[in-house]
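<backbone_tokenisation>
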Amino acid sequence: MKFEDHLRTCLLSFPAIYPTALRVYDHLFIVNGNGYEWIDGELVSDSDYCFNVEDAVVKNISFTLVENNAFLKRMMSVSDNILEKTVERMIEDSIKPLFHVEERMKDFTIPEWFNEKGRHTDDNRFTFYDLSKYSKLYTIPDNVKDDWLKAAKKMVDILDKNPDKFKDREGIFEQVKERINKLYKERFLF
């Protein structure tokens, strides 16, 4: 699957987990054990869950309604008008991110907090997942497809500009950066 299509599908499938492109990049390229493997030059999920955009939209709305089922049952005792407005708002909240997906695909804003609505403590400050030899940035293959290489390069550039936002306990970032920049130069800067 083309990187852009995969990015869009992740944003549509899980808008609460992936509010921005940055969160998808972090998951795909840095998170260990993320359920992806390099196959024929692109990251491929070991699950086919929600990798159809239409299914993603339906599942997101369904999940929102199921997630709030207990709340809805309590609401049964209120007037039909209030219940109807509550359900409409819940559906709107689950659909709203879907209409802004193109904006979200370009959003690489590094948030200050993991959860803006959560408690703001040092434990809740945003950082990328720790870079390791298990991250897909480290294991990028020579036959990586061009669009996936461009995305990996973007992730490296983001990390390079924000060294305080990730941990490099294994001391591999410079090696990763050098390898990805080399592949990028060979392909695009002749």
